[in-house]
Fold these 2 entries.
Entry 1:
Amino acid sequence: MSIDIILNTALEIRRIVFEHTIKNKGGYLSQACSSADFLAALYAKLLNLGKSTAPEIPSLFSGNPSAKNLHYKRGALYHGEKESEHDRFFISPAHYALVIYAALIAVGRMHKKALDMFNQDGSSVEMIGAEHSPGMEVTNGSLGQTLSMAAGTAFARKKKNETGRVWVFVSDGEFQEGQTWEAFLTMSHYNLNNMAIIADMNGQQCDGTIDSVMKLGDIEAKLKSFGAYTISIDGHNITEICEASKIKPVNGPLVILANTNPWQGMSYLKKRSPRLHYVRFKSNEELNELETAIREELYSS
Amino acid sequence: MKVVVKPYAKAFINFAAHRDDILCVTADLTSSCEVDGFRDLYPNKFISMGMTEQNMMSFCGALALEGFYPFIHTFAVFLYRRPLDQIIASVAFPNRKVRLMGFLPGITTPGGITHQAIEDIAVLRSLPNMTILETGDATEVETVLNIADSIEGPVYVRILRGEVIRLFDTPFEFNKLRLLQKGSDILLLTSGIMTEEALKVTSLLKTKNISICHLHVSTLKPFAQTEFLDYLSSVKKGVITMENHTIVGGLGSIAAEIMAENGINKKLIRLGLKDTFAHGASLKYLMKEYKMDAAALIEAVESLLNIKTFITENDFIDTRDELKQVIDKTEDL
């Protein structure tokens, strides 16, 4: 598969998220900028997933999981059948849901009309995805839990002699959660080298830049000291992403630190830095200016 | 009555030895939770998680999603306080079959407020999908594992360890009240270790012509509401609950909720920790200090019936046969 196809998928993800944000007059735009390229690479090429077994247009919310609810449909169905050789893909930062939905649409796992259901009452296409939301294997609106859940999955899959990898997409802010480090201890202790973690190192969190809110310091050294195999790459360079994904460590999980730019592909957003977590508009003029500038950049090629 | 030493240790081995889908999980309190023997016999079914309770909860949620049945063993207090968020998102909401085996419930530990799970039932009862069980004797400790295993969702169990009295000769029955004594004046509901405490005086009260209907409760959520209401209609004066827990949100509150919703106009006295933390001391001392013991039950009966029984502590029945053997005690904590 050529790099162009992945780049086109990434562009499509940015366009979908942008169009939705304009229509919705607000949204998680910068998350699409930083993560679109590696998500495109993962979904279009790197992940070994089965065909989606979910409806192209997502089902409505059908009640929460319980002993009595036999109709609960998990978002993991969009990642296909669970087979020994298949990979699993866990999304940890659930507020990237819109970007994930856009990625599922861009690679043909979901119909673009699904976004009409985004954040609508009674829909499963929720704003902060739960595990009934498309693409969501588990529930992690509370950041930092998915890594442990993925580790439990990786442990179970080793026990069952399954060969597929367990991929996890984490955000850099989650390195502030204590549970993240408990999870790394566990991955190292049980040598969960069937795990591959890709971190969106966009340096952003809700209150502003990570450096201003709670510095992470030398994150690569910290991860190494916790027994992870780390590699730091340009998170917008498709070749680097693909090469990094080939690494299969003997010891510990693979951690790909994808250094990203929160306004990649939408340069106008830089003006709003450092408040990029959720883009809101105070006036129509503000919205129009942003729309014109970004539309030009996204559709000029 | 006979005292059984470490009933859980043997029960867990019997239960899990022949099952490859069960995983014994611990958080650095393996021998304190009496599963060190299991660990040594079946190292492949044992997972040491260290002191990573938050991580452990999410990790086990995923093990359950992959078809395993993780039984997590640690002190009750460490199972739900720190990792409550993880219980909610990784276990309770997705209704995963994770079994939380909580040791040293309530004030059965002298470890002070950091070790005493006094509001576990209140907290966990408020979580949708959660089933809550509490053992009150060696027979229930031995037979609760199959019950927990049969539940289609997460289960929290208060387990007794060490020297555990044998009160019952029939196994743990799910969502069923255990009738220990019939009576028509007062309905007495006891759970966990409070049942043994109440038995120190219930037969004495009978000799004083005080008619007590004594029920042992071992399933706290769900609750056998219909059965409870039937028993309620057979007593004239009122209800007393005794729990090794704060009176806010536990057995006493459960009784109060059902009585209020069904318009039962009877007095209710709730014995337990009265909205207070305890502190580090022996069980006997704390039960007396916080008016949770048999003497407190006598007082409650006297208050409900407006009488004096003239029963003193010297009259109390000694429930435990003396242990003949010297046991290898697990460290106190």
Note: Chain A has one domain: 3-64+71-299.
Entry 2:
Amino acid sequence: MVVFDRKSEPHDPGLIRKLKKTALSIRRDVLTMTTRAGSGHPGGSLSCADLLAALYFHHLRYDPENPGWEDRDRFILSKGHACPALYSALSMAGFFSREALRDLRKCGSILQGHPDMNTTPGIEASTGSLGQGLSIGCGMALAARLDRREYRVYVLMGDGEMNEGQVWEAAMAGAHYEVDNLLAIVDRNMIQLDGPTEKILRLEPLNEKWKAFGWHVMEIDGHDMLQILEALDAAEKIKHKPTVIIAHTVKGKGVSFMENQVKYHGKALTEDELQKALEELDRGGEGERQE
Amino acid sequence: MKDRSKGFNLETRQEALMREAYGRTLAELGEKDSSIVVLDADLSTSTKTSVFAERFPERFFNVGVAEANLMGIAAGLASAGKIPFVSTFSVFGTEKGLSQFKQSIAYPKLNVKIVVTHGGLTVGEDGASHFCLWDIAIMRALPNTTVVVPADAIETEMAIMAVAKHQGPTFVRLTRPKTPLVYEEGYRYSGHQLKFEIGKSVTLEDGGDATIIATGPLVAEALVAASNLKMENLDVGVINMHTVKPLDERTVLKAAVETNALVTAEDHSVIGGLGGAVTEVLAENRPTPLRRIGVRDEYGESGPWRKLYERYGLTSQHIEKAVREVLKMKR
């Protein structure tokens, strides 16, 4: 047993620095992997990199050597297309080798185009067809209650994904069953495949929608590491209702020419673009270190 | 002259509700195994999961009229080691929860049992909006999925017990009304004790001239047909194909070799169900004269289910006619 359990570590500047650096590594991996694969979804993978760094390298409890450990926290990537970011986090966490990242989306790879719980160690649910993760998370949370286990369930959804009716079915159920061991996070990057979320199908007022469905709602800057950590902790104190964190993010975060660009939702960078992007990420990383 | 009183006769047969057998069996299983959980989408008093719900309220989840979420919650429970039985009407479970069943359950091979009631035309008066005459075809097309269609209430009990032990995504299809009992108490037929095994058909009647392969409530109709044809000196076998997937191919091919004249019979579209499954096996291995009894690519309409069986060609008389036709083809 090599349980990762660091939730209680103080949120000091050292931790924040470390997690920001990890998020940067996730971003580098995302871009490198998708360019190598020649396809994938870099935009929404970059927007959730900070959230994943906070979850996998501070907040969640898990054992990479025993991915099926019964008391582990469960994380479901409902916006399955952002899996390059999750694969990066899982490989750094030790669920599988760094080399595996090279084979994203290739035949025979353990890293499928969308998450596959039977192929990739550490993946908790097979997702990709949007809207399904919150229901699964709700089921896991109910199972934890039946078994009187302490683990918590985390579901990361996209904002475009909020268009799916099933999300709201699950939202009703989560509140009805009062699953306070379930935390939903919305990666609110404001852009979906075809364009701005408010132009495609208006989501606002999103906060009030979740509230009306009976959830405790928090809104944070999804790139502010301290805010993320504080929100994850605060959510655990909310009882008798599930919590949703609306994390305001930037699609393509970290690479100036990708930020807020619809076209990088589902398009990998060319080799030249990748070099430019990695250089920029490096510069940003240096900036972080000087803080 | 036909003496219908001696053979398999629907008028003298006892009838029972598959749904009741299901609810009762589920509650018994719940007593023995605390990992069994049950989910329903606001139809529990109809699907009879209410019997389980009363006994084990903490292990019963009524998710409301929300079939997508129904499947997803079941997937989550299964991935945490529970054995979820999920019930609703076939039309809702199959059609409204399909994407979720595929993506969240069948693809990752989660141990979820979908037990739908109100299969086929037996829905009756509610009409076309409530029919799902393609559930077997759809579910059978999904990899990792086992499809079981019991013939009566007694076999339903056997099937549910077997399905509870079976590992993996499973779809079980039951009917709405009381249907004639094919079996005698304790899963016997003509005095013989039988054993229910998923994937293994039950040969109810041997026959040298032709073989009827039937599933669900059409097994009883097939037995009536065979019994009537016997009076015309036609020796017709009846196989109950209670598992449509995996199909008992060996028995299908054996019947093809032995009688060289087959009729499939199901309360389902002729496209893609039992008829489809049997013809696929035969076409690739041993082309054999065959007729399919089933609904011929229609949505159906309201009416008492027996009347609908007459109107859409699902009665014993239709099966008898098909057997005569297939015997002509063989010559």
Note: Chain A has a mean pLDDT of 96.
